[in-house]
Amino acid sequence: MAIVQCVPNFSEGRDLEKIEKIVNPLRGKEGVKLLNYEADKNYNRLVVTVIGEPQKVKEAVFESIGIATKLIDLNNHKGQHSRFGATDVCPFIPIKDMDMNDAIKLAKELGEEVANKYKIPVFLYEQAASKPGRENLATVRKGEYEGLEEKLKDTNWSPDFGEAKKHSTAGAIAIGARRPLIAYNINLDTENIEIASKIAKTIRHSSGGYRYIKAGPVEVPERKITQVTMNLTDYTKTSMYRAFEAVKMEAKRYGVNVTGSEVVGLCPMEALVDVASYYLGLEDFSLDKVLETSLME
Amino acid sequence: MAIVQCVPNFSEGRDLEKIEKIVNPLRGKEGVKLLNYEADKNYNRLVVTVIGEPQKVKEAVFESIGIATKLIDLNNHKGQHSRFGATDVCPFIPIKDMDMNDAIKLAKELGEEVANKYKIPVFLYEQAASKPGRENLATVRKGEYEGLEEKLKDTNWSPDFGEAKKHSTAGAIAIGARRPLIAYNINLDTENIEIASKIAKTIRHSSGGYRYIKAGPVEVPERKITQVTMNLTDYTKTSMYRAFEAVKMEAKRYGVNVTGSEVVGLCPMEALVDVASYYLGLEDFSLDKVLETSLME
């Protein structure tokens, strides 16, 4: 059975009553499971993680978007996180028995339905992007809600679904498909943030490192350590063990040790199977040989 | 939702028609999944792996035992594998949201039902054993079908359920509860079986090694290597990485390298999580942080 993950972000991080109403359609439905939702007051943003059968997840998220469209007015919205829509972004992530193309298809279906029913202009982004310049969410969202009217006058920014006209309260929405991220931090036994920073630079894509690593330095003063904090944006191409061993290797240069690591949030089983396979030199091992995989079919 | 695995072994490895009839009750039932069945002609034995909701698995296996009782006559049974029953052994293995006590309870329920309905004497073994001397299956089965009548005269060997009287065609049955086994082989870049044998001895319980490792040497002439072949009988106490590193450490003594390893059959996710956690030094990591775990609840 195919399983998709969906992580809609809504522009409401303060009003708990509204937040509950937005999340409500994702509860108690067969084939849909609300994994987590976190509201951030400073960001004034709600991040929801839901998982389940693709069509059922899509339908439930479609309902939530409808409620967010009614409850959120971006004309009165202030927060530290950039946003251009009441439902700001909505990525689909293929988890099981489906591939990226299936997730892209789902994003397009949802996009069309959202444009038709809620009259919100929809931009497809990341793997679902219709043009190269639309892959990067930051580019798509540039100008934010306040600049949206102007942006939509540019024919380069005509939406993928819906008219080139911002919704008067809900703005626009970016719907897309992407791989699961792994948020992964590696601990260094130094308080020197410069060292963490230098190591982060060597491993991240933006400064010459691995293609699917985003990385930066973080201080953890209460533990008297620093961390290299990472997003592994495609763990099938840049594995956790590779990030770990690369940081270890670079740390040696500074006489610093890697003392451990941590996963923030959830981590796909496949990524851990890959780690175990690497260190044990496992032959012919794959997810199929994991007992639990057979429980999920 | 609780998930149990059950691995009944039947004393029929040759007659495909009978095999299909025995396996049939394990197919197409809600909450029960037939993972695998393998018949061995030399052993004249059928090993079935089924998984699912505890009560439903128990009921389905109960049906299979009934069919095996009708179809198999141990008076005419010959094979290389020792056996004392038509359904020879039937272990329950707790997989998810249940513990060993739940598996023991299930074993006892099945034992009582089998004794009542099919009039077969039942011995509880391994974790479900009622006395210390009955933990070891080999001890319980000693004397095999041919010696069963004599064995049952000994009050030390009165069955846990049913009368002290062998079933005239189906003998007896051992029902138990145990941890999942991991069948794990480690490759050595030597053809010298003596080296594999010496290493196996250092790591296995029976000759002074780890408590939950059974190990021996195997030749793999087609690859010009040998293997240390193992059963990890409790991977929560003796992890795969520990077996792997121990073999690597011992191999050094002989100038031999560990070139890889393999899992035969299925491997529980928890065992792989433990391996990944060890090598990456993961903090606060557990099955709960595996995305797929949330799919199974």
Roughly what fraction of the amino acids of chain A lie in strands?
15-25%
CATH superfamily of the largest domain in chain A: Formiminotransferase, N-terminal subdomain
> What composes the largest sheet of chain A?
7 strands, mixed
Number of strands of chain A: 11
Structural class of chain A: alpha+beta
State the CATH class of the largest domain in chain A. Answer: Alpha Beta
Question: Architecture of the largest domain in chain A, CATH level 2?
Answer: 2-Layer Sandwich
Mean pLDDT of chain A: 94
- Annotated CATH topology of the largest domain in chain A: Formiminotransferase-cyclodeaminase, Chain B, domain 1
Low-pLDDT windows of residues of chain A: none
What sequence of helices (H) and strands (E) makes up the elements of chain A? Answer: EEHEEHEHEHHEEHEEHEHH
From the spread of the alpha carbons, the general shape of chain A counts as globular
Write down the oligomeric state. Answer: homodimer
Rg of chain A from C-alpha positions?
20 Å
The largest interface is:
A-B, 43 and 43 residues
Describe this structure in words.
In chain A, the strands form two sheets. In chain A, strands 1, 2, 3, 4, 5, 6 and 7 form a seven-stranded mixed beta sheet that branches. A four-stranded antiparallel beta sheet of chain A has the order 9-10-8-11, with helices on one face. The first copy, chain A, has nine helices and eleven strands. Chain A folds into two domains: 3-177, Formiminotransferase-cyclodeaminase, Chain B, domain 1 (2-Layer Sandwich); 182-295, Formiminotransferase, C-terminal subdomain (Alpha-Beta Plaits). Chain A is globular and about 55 Å long. In chain A, helix 1 (16-23) runs antiparallel to helix 2, helix 2 (54-71) packs parallel to helix 3 and helix 6 (193-203) packs across helix 7. With 297 residues, chain A is of the alpha+beta class. The interface between A and B is large, with 43 and 43 residues. Chains A, B: InterPro entries: Formiminotransferase_C, Formiminotransferase_C_sf, Formiminotransferase_cat, Formiminotransferase_N, Formiminotransferase_N_sf, FormiminoTrfase_cat_dom_sf, FTCD. Chains A, B: Residues 180-294 form the Formiminotransferase C-terminal subdomain domain. Chains A, B: Residues 2-179 form the Formiminotransferase N-terminal subdomain domain. Chains A, B: One of its GO terms (cellular component) is cytoplasm. Chains A, B: Its EC number is 2.1.2.5.
